[in-house]
Amino acid sequence: LDGTNDTFLAFDKGIELSSPLAFCLQFNIRDILETNYIFSSTDDKLVLVFRFSVSLGILLINSVAHFFEIPKENDVKPFHWHHICVTSAEDSYTIVHDGQQWYHANHLHESFEKTTLTRLDLGSANEYWEFSDGIRFKGLLSELNIWSKSLSVIQMVEITTHCGEIDPIADLLNWSKLPSSTIRGSKYDDDI
After folding, report:
1. Interval 153-182: pLDDT, tens
2. Residue 126: in which H helix or E strand, if any?
């Protein structure tokens, strides 16, 4: 998917989000000097923002914000495919990028009520999460998979280093079985 246009995923029946939760995706970014909005929902049920300019990332799951440091030596290069996985549990979350653990943090045990995600905007964020150096994501997104359970670091390393091999199979959103009617807006069709 080309994130430079108004592209979004529309889920007719919705996707039920709760904790634990995990997601993985591939991205090919054009500009790593700015804040990049990877995806968001208008009600902040699921948001991912990379602020490369200040080495900070923002993740929201069910409107609960988690901030994480992006390592200065992160090996994110423009015009290259990268893989990222995020997993959250009731008391922690972990981020793995291209086979390396980027971040792990414990947080207070919080109650995550089940919510339903009906739309996920790719490459944009709502007004609250817009920053002065922010840009709509410029690049390509692919292989977004969402699980209703946590993944281990070993599983995330495997997923982010073996393109196309997903184990366990994603149960909430499986990119390879995504109906084309779910993707609205611009599409990018190419073998990765």
Report:
1. 999 999 999 865 677 899 999 988 888 888
2. none
